[in-house]
TrEMBL record:
It comes from Nitrococcus mobilis Nb-231. The gene is dinB. Its cofactor is Mg(2+). The lineage of its organism: Bacteria, Pseudomonadati, Pseudomonadota, Gammaproteobacteria, Chromatiales. Signal peptide: none annotated. The record marks Y17 as: Substrate discrimination. Poorly processive, error-prone DNA polymerase involved in untargeted mutagenesis. Copies undamaged DNA at stalled replication forks, which arise in vivo from mismatched or misaligned primer ends. These misaligned primers can be extended by PolIV. Exhibits no 3'-5' exonuclease (proofreading) activity. May be involved in translesional synthesis, in conjunction with the beta clamp from PolIII. NCBIfam families: PRK02406.1 (NF002677). Monomer. Binds 2 magnesium ions per subunit. It comes from the Bacteria. This is DNA polymerase IV.
Length: 363
Protein backbone atom coordinates (compact mmCIF):
# COMPACT_ATOMS: atom_id res chain seq x y z
CA UNK A 1 0.00 0.00 0.00
CA UNK A 2 1.60 3.26 -1.12
CA UNK A 3 0.93 6.67 0.41
CA UNK A 4 -0.13 9.87 -1.34
CA UNK A 5 2.35 11.27 -3.88
CA UNK A 6 5.20 13.37 -2.61
CA UNK A 7 6.31 16.49 -4.45
CA UNK A 8 9.99 16.09 -5.26
CA UNK A 9 12.28 18.52 -7.06
CA UNK A 10 15.70 17.48 -8.32
CA UNK A 11 18.01 20.43 -8.99
CA UNK A 12 21.13 19.86 -11.09
CA UNK A 13 23.49 22.74 -11.83
CA UNK A 14 24.59 23.05 -15.46
CA UNK A 15 28.27 22.23 -16.10
CA UNK A 16 28.83 23.46 -12.57
CA UNK A 17 32.61 23.84 -12.17
CA UNK A 18 33.04 25.18 -15.70
CA UNK A 19 30.07 27.55 -15.30
CA UNK A 20 31.54 29.01 -12.11
CA UNK A 21 34.82 29.60 -13.95
CA UNK A 22 33.02 31.28 -16.87
CA UNK A 23 31.00 33.45 -14.49
CA UNK A 24 34.06 34.61 -12.57
CA UNK A 25 36.18 35.28 -15.64
CA UNK A 26 34.15 36.95 -18.42
CA UNK A 27 36.95 36.18 -20.89
CA UNK A 28 35.82 32.55 -20.72
CA UNK A 29 32.20 33.23 -21.70
CA UNK A 30 31.19 31.31 -24.78
CA UNK A 31 34.56 29.53 -24.89
CA UNK A 32 35.22 25.79 -24.59
CA UNK A 33 36.42 25.51 -20.99
CA UNK A 34 37.85 22.35 -19.47
CA UNK A 35 38.41 22.19 -15.72
CA UNK A 36 41.42 19.94 -15.12
CA UNK A 37 44.80 19.96 -13.44
CA UNK A 38 47.82 20.39 -15.66
CA UNK A 39 50.01 17.49 -16.66
CA UNK A 40 49.70 14.39 -18.77
CA UNK A 41 48.15 12.40 -15.91
CA UNK A 42 45.17 14.67 -15.37
CA UNK A 43 41.52 13.85 -15.99
CA UNK A 44 38.67 16.22 -16.80
CA UNK A 45 36.75 17.43 -13.74
CA UNK A 46 34.18 19.33 -15.81
CA UNK A 47 33.64 20.69 -19.31
CA UNK A 48 31.56 23.63 -20.48
CA UNK A 49 28.81 22.96 -22.98
CA UNK A 50 30.97 24.59 -25.64
CA UNK A 51 33.61 21.91 -24.99
CA UNK A 52 31.06 19.10 -24.77
CA UNK A 53 30.11 19.73 -28.39
CA UNK A 54 33.51 18.27 -29.28
CA UNK A 55 32.89 15.12 -27.26
CA UNK A 56 34.71 16.19 -24.08
CA UNK A 57 33.27 14.59 -20.96
CA UNK A 58 34.02 14.46 -17.23
CA UNK A 59 36.53 11.79 -16.12
CA UNK A 60 38.06 11.71 -19.61
CA UNK A 61 41.88 11.87 -19.73
CA UNK A 62 42.87 15.50 -20.20
CA UNK A 63 45.19 14.55 -23.05
CA UNK A 64 42.28 12.98 -24.93
CA UNK A 65 40.14 16.06 -24.27
CA UNK A 66 42.86 18.27 -25.69
CA UNK A 67 43.00 16.15 -28.85
CA UNK A 68 39.22 16.39 -29.25
CA UNK A 69 39.17 20.14 -28.63
CA UNK A 70 42.59 21.72 -29.31
CA UNK A 71 41.17 25.23 -28.84
CA UNK A 72 39.92 24.48 -25.32
CA UNK A 73 40.97 26.65 -22.41
CA UNK A 74 42.18 24.55 -19.48
CA UNK A 75 41.51 25.90 -15.98
CA UNK A 76 42.75 24.21 -12.77
CA UNK A 77 39.92 23.31 -10.37
CA UNK A 78 39.26 25.48 -7.32
CA UNK A 79 37.20 23.32 -4.99
CA UNK A 80 37.24 25.86 -2.16
CA UNK A 81 35.39 28.28 -4.43
CA UNK A 82 33.02 25.59 -5.75
CA UNK A 83 32.12 24.59 -2.19
CA UNK A 84 31.48 28.21 -1.23
CA UNK A 85 29.10 28.68 -4.16
CA UNK A 86 27.44 25.36 -3.30
CA UNK A 87 26.67 26.71 0.17
CA UNK A 88 25.00 29.72 -1.45
CA UNK A 89 22.90 27.41 -3.61
CA UNK A 90 21.97 25.35 -0.54
CA UNK A 91 20.86 28.54 1.22
CA UNK A 92 18.46 29.22 -1.66
CA UNK A 93 17.04 25.70 -1.32
CA UNK A 94 16.55 26.28 2.42
CA UNK A 95 14.21 29.18 1.79
CA UNK A 96 11.71 26.68 0.42
CA UNK A 97 12.20 23.49 2.45
CA UNK A 98 14.34 21.90 5.15
CA UNK A 99 14.04 18.50 3.45
CA UNK A 100 17.17 18.65 1.30
CA UNK A 101 19.26 15.66 0.27
CA UNK A 102 22.54 16.79 -1.32
CA UNK A 103 24.04 14.32 -3.77
CA UNK A 104 27.12 16.40 -4.57
CA UNK A 105 28.17 20.05 -4.68
CA UNK A 106 25.95 20.67 -7.69
CA UNK A 107 22.79 18.59 -7.26
CA UNK A 108 20.20 17.75 -4.63
CA UNK A 109 16.75 16.35 -4.02
CA UNK A 110 14.18 18.58 -2.32
CA UNK A 111 10.91 17.41 -0.82
CA UNK A 112 8.51 20.32 -1.31
CA UNK A 113 5.28 18.50 -0.50
CA UNK A 114 4.92 21.38 1.95
CA UNK A 115 6.99 24.45 1.12
CA UNK A 116 7.92 27.39 3.32
CA UNK A 117 6.90 30.06 0.82
CA UNK A 118 3.36 28.77 0.44
CA UNK A 119 3.73 28.43 -3.33
CA UNK A 120 0.89 26.62 -5.04
CA UNK A 121 2.85 23.78 -6.64
CA UNK A 122 6.21 22.04 -6.81
CA UNK A 123 6.58 23.48 -10.31
CA UNK A 124 6.35 27.00 -8.90
CA UNK A 125 8.98 26.11 -6.29
CA UNK A 126 11.34 24.79 -8.98
CA UNK A 127 10.85 27.94 -11.06
CA UNK A 128 11.48 30.17 -8.04
CA UNK A 129 14.68 28.31 -7.11
CA UNK A 130 16.03 28.45 -10.66
CA UNK A 131 15.22 32.17 -10.88
CA UNK A 132 17.01 32.87 -7.58
CA UNK A 133 20.08 30.94 -8.70
CA UNK A 134 20.13 32.86 -11.98
CA UNK A 135 19.48 36.31 -10.50
CA UNK A 136 21.64 36.05 -7.37
CA UNK A 137 24.47 33.79 -8.49
CA UNK A 138 24.50 34.31 -12.28
CA UNK A 139 24.39 30.54 -12.82
CA UNK A 140 21.83 28.25 -14.40
CA UNK A 141 20.26 25.08 -13.05
CA UNK A 142 18.04 22.42 -14.57
CA UNK A 143 15.19 20.90 -12.60
CA UNK A 144 12.95 17.87 -12.66
CA UNK A 145 9.65 17.78 -10.79
CA UNK A 146 7.84 14.53 -10.04
CA UNK A 147 6.17 12.48 -7.33
CA UNK A 148 9.37 10.59 -6.49
CA UNK A 149 13.13 10.83 -6.59
CA UNK A 150 14.03 8.68 -9.55
CA UNK A 151 11.50 10.32 -11.87
CA UNK A 152 12.60 13.79 -10.78
CA UNK A 153 16.26 12.95 -11.45
CA UNK A 154 15.56 11.61 -14.93
CA UNK A 155 13.40 14.66 -15.66
CA UNK A 156 16.11 17.15 -14.61
CA UNK A 157 18.39 15.80 -17.33
CA UNK A 158 15.73 16.03 -20.03
CA UNK A 159 16.11 19.65 -21.20
CA UNK A 160 19.65 20.48 -20.12
CA UNK A 161 21.05 23.05 -19.91
CA UNK A 162 18.76 25.51 -18.11
CA UNK A 163 15.68 23.32 -18.49
CA UNK A 164 12.64 22.27 -16.49
CA UNK A 165 10.49 19.17 -16.93
CA UNK A 166 7.46 18.24 -14.86
CA UNK A 167 6.29 14.61 -14.79
CA UNK A 168 2.86 14.48 -13.20
CA UNK A 169 1.70 11.21 -11.60
CA UNK A 170 -0.69 10.35 -14.44
CA UNK A 171 2.11 10.93 -16.98
CA UNK A 172 4.72 8.69 -15.33
CA UNK A 173 3.95 5.44 -17.15
CA UNK A 174 3.92 7.06 -20.60
CA UNK A 175 7.06 9.04 -19.80
CA UNK A 176 8.96 5.87 -18.89
CA UNK A 177 7.70 3.49 -21.57
CA UNK A 178 10.23 4.18 -24.32
CA UNK A 179 13.23 4.83 -22.08
CA UNK A 180 16.09 2.31 -22.17
CA UNK A 181 16.24 0.27 -18.98
CA UNK A 182 19.73 1.63 -18.33
CA UNK A 183 18.12 4.96 -17.39
CA UNK A 184 16.68 3.33 -14.26
CA UNK A 185 18.71 3.79 -11.04
CA UNK A 186 20.87 0.78 -10.31
CA UNK A 187 20.67 -0.63 -13.85
CA UNK A 188 24.17 -0.50 -15.27
CA UNK A 189 25.80 -2.31 -18.15
CA UNK A 190 25.77 -5.72 -16.44
CA UNK A 191 22.09 -5.67 -15.45
CA UNK A 192 21.19 -4.11 -18.78
CA UNK A 193 22.91 -6.98 -20.56
CA UNK A 194 21.12 -9.57 -18.42
CA UNK A 195 17.78 -7.93 -19.17
CA UNK A 196 18.61 -7.85 -22.88
CA UNK A 197 19.21 -11.60 -22.76
CA UNK A 198 15.52 -12.08 -21.92
CA UNK A 199 14.35 -9.58 -24.53
CA UNK A 200 14.02 -6.49 -22.33
CA UNK A 201 15.57 -3.27 -23.61
CA UNK A 202 13.03 -0.60 -22.66
CA UNK A 203 11.12 0.25 -19.51
CA UNK A 204 7.89 -0.57 -21.31
CA UNK A 205 9.15 -4.08 -22.04
CA UNK A 206 10.26 -4.43 -18.43
CA UNK A 207 6.77 -3.44 -17.29
CA UNK A 208 5.14 -6.26 -19.23
CA UNK A 209 7.59 -8.91 -17.98
CA UNK A 210 5.98 -11.32 -15.48
CA UNK A 211 7.04 -10.50 -11.95
CA UNK A 212 7.87 -14.18 -11.13
CA UNK A 213 10.30 -14.22 -14.07
CA UNK A 214 12.05 -11.08 -12.82
CA UNK A 215 12.22 -12.39 -9.25
CA UNK A 216 13.54 -15.74 -10.41
CA UNK A 217 16.30 -14.10 -12.41
CA UNK A 218 17.15 -11.14 -10.18
CA UNK A 219 15.84 -12.05 -6.71
CA UNK A 220 14.49 -9.15 -4.65
CA UNK A 221 16.01 -6.75 -7.16
CA UNK A 222 13.52 -8.13 -9.69
CA UNK A 223 10.63 -6.71 -7.65
CA UNK A 224 12.41 -3.39 -7.42
CA UNK A 225 12.83 -3.33 -11.20
CA UNK A 226 9.12 -4.07 -11.61
CA UNK A 227 8.21 -1.18 -9.29
CA UNK A 228 10.49 1.24 -11.12
CA UNK A 229 8.95 0.27 -14.45
CA UNK A 230 5.59 1.33 -12.98
CA UNK A 231 7.03 4.64 -11.77
CA UNK A 232 7.03 3.56 -8.11
CA UNK A 233 9.83 4.80 -5.86
CA UNK A 234 9.06 5.18 -2.17
CA UNK A 235 12.50 6.38 -1.06
CA UNK A 236 12.18 9.51 1.10
CA UNK A 237 14.41 12.54 0.86
CA UNK A 238 17.12 11.93 3.48
CA UNK A 239 18.55 15.12 4.94
CA UNK A 240 21.59 13.46 6.56
CA UNK A 241 23.37 10.71 4.68
CA UNK A 242 26.03 9.04 6.85
CA UNK A 243 29.12 8.07 4.92
CA UNK A 244 29.20 4.43 3.86
CA UNK A 245 32.87 4.56 2.88
CA UNK A 246 35.99 6.62 3.40
CA UNK A 247 38.83 6.43 0.92
CA UNK A 248 41.85 8.13 -0.56
CA UNK A 249 43.44 7.67 -3.97
CA UNK A 250 46.31 9.05 -5.97
CA UNK A 251 47.28 9.27 -9.64
CA UNK A 252 50.99 8.80 -10.31
CA UNK A 253 53.25 11.00 -12.40
CA UNK A 254 54.53 7.82 -14.07
CA UNK A 255 52.88 4.40 -14.32
CA UNK A 256 54.02 1.81 -11.80
CA UNK A 257 54.05 -1.98 -11.56
CA UNK A 258 52.00 -3.75 -8.90
CA UNK A 259 55.11 -4.61 -6.86
CA UNK A 260 56.05 -0.91 -6.72
CA UNK A 261 52.79 0.24 -5.12
CA UNK A 262 53.39 -0.62 -1.44
CA UNK A 263 54.72 2.81 -0.31
CA UNK A 264 51.75 4.51 -1.94
CA UNK A 265 49.26 2.04 -0.46
CA UNK A 266 50.69 2.62 3.01
CA UNK A 267 50.58 6.41 2.61
CA UNK A 268 46.96 6.30 1.39
CA UNK A 269 46.03 3.90 4.19
CA UNK A 270 47.23 6.48 6.71
CA UNK A 271 45.17 9.18 4.99
CA UNK A 272 42.08 6.98 4.91
CA UNK A 273 42.56 6.07 8.55
CA UNK A 274 42.66 9.74 9.57
CA UNK A 275 39.33 10.33 7.81
CA UNK A 276 37.88 7.21 9.41
CA UNK A 277 38.89 8.34 12.90
CA UNK A 278 36.89 11.55 12.42
CA UNK A 279 33.75 9.39 12.65
CA UNK A 280 34.24 7.74 16.07
CA UNK A 281 30.68 6.37 16.22
CA UNK A 282 31.03 4.50 12.91
CA UNK A 283 32.91 1.26 12.25
CA UNK A 284 33.98 -0.50 9.07
CA UNK A 285 35.08 -4.06 8.46
CA UNK A 286 35.70 -4.08 4.70
CA UNK A 287 39.03 -2.92 3.27
CA UNK A 288 39.09 -2.03 -0.42
CA UNK A 289 42.01 -1.72 -2.81
CA UNK A 290 41.28 0.20 -6.01
CA UNK A 291 43.55 0.14 -9.05
CA UNK A 292 43.42 1.74 -12.48
CA UNK A 293 45.68 0.46 -15.24
CA UNK A 294 47.53 2.58 -17.75
CA UNK A 295 44.74 1.62 -20.18
CA UNK A 296 42.16 3.08 -17.75
CA UNK A 297 40.73 -0.28 -16.72
CA UNK A 298 39.49 -0.01 -13.12
CA UNK A 299 39.47 -2.97 -10.75
CA UNK A 300 38.84 -3.38 -7.04
CA UNK A 301 39.69 -6.07 -4.53
CA UNK A 302 38.21 -6.19 -1.03
CA UNK A 303 38.28 -8.20 2.16
CA UNK A 304 35.66 -8.23 4.93
CA UNK A 305 37.04 -8.97 8.39
CA UNK A 306 35.25 -10.49 11.40
CA UNK A 307 36.17 -7.38 13.43
CA UNK A 308 37.02 -3.79 12.47
CA UNK A 309 40.69 -2.97 11.81
CA UNK A 310 42.43 -1.53 14.87
CA UNK A 311 45.14 0.60 13.27
CA UNK A 312 46.22 2.21 10.02
CA UNK A 313 48.93 -0.45 9.82
CA UNK A 314 46.24 -3.15 9.81
CA UNK A 315 44.57 -1.41 6.89
CA UNK A 316 47.84 -1.02 5.01
CA UNK A 317 48.91 -4.63 5.55
CA UNK A 318 45.61 -5.99 4.27
CA UNK A 319 45.44 -3.56 1.34
CA UNK A 320 48.95 -4.53 0.28
CA UNK A 321 48.01 -8.18 0.61
CA UNK A 322 45.01 -7.69 -1.70
CA UNK A 323 47.46 -7.22 -4.57
CA UNK A 324 47.85 -11.00 -4.57
CA UNK A 325 44.27 -11.25 -5.82
CA UNK A 326 45.00 -9.16 -8.93
CA UNK A 327 45.18 -11.60 -11.84
CA UNK A 328 46.66 -9.31 -14.50
CA UNK A 329 50.11 -9.95 -15.88
CA UNK A 330 53.08 -8.92 -13.67
CA UNK A 331 54.13 -6.38 -16.30
CA UNK A 332 50.85 -4.47 -16.13
CA UNK A 333 51.34 -0.79 -15.33
CA UNK A 334 49.04 1.20 -13.06
CA UNK A 335 48.29 4.91 -13.13
CA UNK A 336 46.17 5.10 -9.95
CA UNK A 337 45.80 3.37 -6.60
CA UNK A 338 43.23 3.91 -3.86
CA UNK A 339 42.53 2.51 -0.39
CA UNK A 340 39.10 2.55 1.23
CA UNK A 341 37.20 1.42 4.31
CA UNK A 342 33.69 0.40 3.27
CA UNK A 343 30.39 -0.64 4.78
CA UNK A 344 30.48 1.88 7.61
CA UNK A 345 27.73 1.30 10.18
CA UNK A 346 26.99 2.68 13.63
CA UNK A 347 29.12 1.07 16.34
CA UNK A 348 25.99 0.10 18.29
CA UNK A 349 24.57 -1.66 15.26
CA UNK A 350 27.81 -3.59 14.80
CA UNK A 351 27.83 -4.63 18.48
CA UNK A 352 24.25 -5.87 18.21
CA UNK A 353 25.09 -7.90 15.11
CA UNK A 354 28.18 -9.39 16.78
CA UNK A 355 26.13 -10.39 19.85
CA UNK A 356 23.51 -11.99 17.64
CA UNK A 357 26.04 -14.12 15.79
CA UNK A 358 27.84 -15.00 19.03
CA UNK A 359 24.52 -16.19 20.47
CA UNK A 360 23.82 -18.30 17.40
CA UNK A 361 27.05 -20.19 17.97
CA UNK A 362 25.58 -21.55 21.21
CA UNK A 363 22.42 -22.90 19.55
Amino acid sequence: MYGPPRKIVHIDMDAYYASVEQRDDPRLNGKPVIVAWGGTRSVVCAASYEARKFGVRSAMPAAQAERLCPQAIFVPPDFIRYKAVSRQIRAIFSRHTDLIEPLSLDEAYLDVTVNKQGLGSATEVAKAIRASIRNELSLTASAGVAANKFLAKIASDWHKPNGLLVVRPHQAAAFLTSLPVTRLPGVGKVTGKRLAQIGIATVGELRTAPLPVLECRFGQWGRRLHELSLGIDERPVVTQRPALQVSAEDTFESDLRLDELEPHIRRLSEKTWRSYRKQPTRVARTIVLKLKTAQFKTLTRSLTLPTPPATATDVADIACGLRARVDLSPGTLYRLVGVGLAGLIDAGQFTAQADLFAGNELL
